[in-house]
Amino acid sequence: xxxxxxxxxxxxxxxxxxxxxxxxxxxxxxxxxxxxxxxxxxxxxxxxxxxxxxxxxxxxxxxxxxxxxxxxxxxxxxxxxxxxxxxxxxxxxxxxxxxxxxxxxxxxxxxxxxxxxxxxxxxxxxxxxxxxxxxxxxxxxxxxxxxxxxxxxxxxxxxxxxxxxxxxxxxxxxxxxxxxxxxxxxxxxxxxxxxxxxxxxxxxxxxxxxxxxxxxxxxxxxxxxxxxxxxxxxxxxxxxxxxxxxxxxxxxxxxxxxxxxxxxxxxxxxxxxxxxxxxxxxxxxxxxxxxxxxxxxxxxxxxxxxxxxxxxxxxxxxxxxxxxxxxxxxxxxxxxxxxxxxxxxxxxxxxxxxxxxxxxxxxxxxxxxxxxxxxxxxxxxxxxxxxxxxxxxxxxxxxxxxxxxxxxxxxxxxxxxxxxxxxxxxxxxxxxxxxxxxxxxxxxxxxxxxxx
Length: 452
Hints:
Elements: H1 2-21, E1 27-31, E2 34-37, H2 38-51, H3 59-79, H4 86-104, H5 107-114, H6 118-143, H7 150-159, E3 167-168, E4 171-179, H8 185-203, H9 209-216, H10 220-223, E5 232-233, H11 239-245, E6 258-260, E7 263-273, E8 276-284, H12 290-308, H13 314-321, E9 346-347, H14 353-359, E10 371-375, E11 380-392, E12 395-396, H15 399-428, E13 432-434
Antiparallel strand pairs: 1-2, 1-13, 3-12, 4-9, 4-11, 5-8, 6-7, 7-8, 10-11
């Protein structure tokens, strides 16, 4: 998924750069009154090669066709007066730029890669993201009225060739109880003392905030960028962090210590832009002691023994014992949010690594012994115990076990059909000219080649 984001960002930026820097050069296609330049195609292709995607065909056919299709959607977006919220655009721009900086190592390396300063990169990316959202809006409008009935799903499944029916890997359904051991006050005070020491050194001019962030911040992603988070709107920040950050006005000042769900922070303002803010922070997380982990293991072991003695069931005890707010009021059932729609079924690779290792050796209905796992939000150790509710062996998809999967396949097929029909009608109604040397292709859509 992340690789896809980078490919889109690199490719679209290449397009914009080519369009800005070339005045008179070879035109490959005309879509209406808009040219597709050879340099646009070349630069998009070269940037795609940077990420080594599998295009599945001749790039000098695939790339210009993709550009042309986007132009058709953007023209429709203009006719429909499609608008995209500026806050959405800017939030996505910052997310993409921050991701690329993290991969390349620094803002300076990103600027060197594109041979442009950050303001120009950001503006080009803004146009890219805006166009992407507008295309999505048009496509959503075209497919919003798809209706699916069980009969449709059954007919769709019956129409699938045997080799088109997907193989569903082994899946499991699990329930979980977690205990977050209380962190000792001495450890919390030690973390706060370190942050106060950092603040003193910054205020006295003995150290730069950015240097301390690189050396000590436990938010490794932002630490690589000198503690900088990039421009983020208030809704996308932790509420406690946002409440302090948006009240900062002096970039030379350091905030008070802020506690969030991730740990303890000090914050420095870089810049505000409307409803977005760019800050640096240093994050430190208090650690759970070995003794507290041992106590939590003993506690869950006692709970397990009482379940096995039938004093209460796993489901009954979850609300009273578990620290996990996502499953505590749901009988401990783990939900797989990596898929749409979310489901209680997990492939083994989709489970947290520690849970997967334990569940792999369990029988259905069995309750594991307590084990230590990582709380990814706070990067702390916690103690967990799981029950294996179901194990569905790997199999060819079928309607009784995999209705939601097949329903989603049908919906996707319908979306593709509707969009393909729309594109080909649009091609028919649009002036298209493909120059010699660019026409000998097997295009995805019909109708590009016309009498010229």
